[in-house]
């Protein structure tokens, strides 16, 4: 059995990072109501029933309509508040074609050039939610044909001004903004006919100038690239042939690459942003490829995917926006609503490794997509009950401080080690130990008197997680369970296979 010693004298300090690193998205379509990804069946989630996609027609049928989300729901607000302050991003593909109808003049029908309508009450619900968690608001704005009715076809700021002014006057100002969600994926729904990289560069520059002239405290964020499967990142070996059979369908959706766009932007962003999903979910696998098999979700290559992507984008950030923080403004296991295992304990390994490695590479924020929508939400989107990822992030936010440390000789195959200062401000360190081996336990030395918070599950595909052996669940009145540690007596403990442990020393 391998052994790791938790020796704080061998640690080196890497950096201090944003305490709001674990933040999240609320999709605009959640706010307005509209289509989003259809949930998987219980059998598909457990792995007992395959998800079969027969082509593009099936992919379109993988969505269904949802009513506007009640962001004032007591359980939703209480669970979000328990996570602590966060950046809240309201965006997504639907934000690019949403009309802001704060006067109630449309009757719910989107004007020409738009596809959906945001009402005053719906936006007030967003602002109240952000205020209730002591959060910070990031948005993207519309860029569809409806905001290009200008003589030269350039972007018209009138709708954006309405959104920014209303939010400021309500007392919950927008604090950061991307111009458009995923601008490299241009469609008739999110941009006018004939729109390309040159037009986008022109309009993002205009948007950033608009912000700096009228709302100088707002952070300009970009380029919001979304490039799944970029060179230098790991790929599935189990699905290698199936992914190859899908060809370049995903790449063909790109109107341009972020690397090609950056030299054309004159107004530099304050924050460098991109999106990262490890792959494409089962909903689009046979059409778009880039799908990982569930059997690979605890493999080192899969767990290194987000870290590899960050390493790929870092040189671009350094060249064009040196020293700017990096915001991953959408991140989850897989695009198109998440994989069948996104709502299970199996996905917690990815979440732990992404958060742990990100702070070692740079300072910034990861916006999980989403808080409470589709299968990748931290909360179930039907009743807002917590999923395993929620419990992990709750522990992360309570335990992990802002100072990042690294012991270069600690990580090995199947074992991932991340170290932070203590969130409670006391001297000492918090060690996050991710044993992603399915079969091998590991001995940890140097832990006498430490506190252990250990997550496990009866099965990796379980929708429940255990803390020190006890299933985590809300009480009868939605009260959170006691998240008490076990005190370690003795100088060593054994971490079982498929376990995720915080040790406070």
UniProtKB/TrEMBL annotation:
Q: Which InterPro entries match?
A: GH
What is the protein name given in its UniProt record? Beta-glucuronidase
User: What is the species listed in this Swiss-Prot or TrEMBL entry?
Assistant: Bifidobacterium vansinderenii
What taxonomic classification does the UniProt entry list for its organism?
Bacteria, Bacillati, Actinomycetota, Actinomycetes, Bifidobacteriales
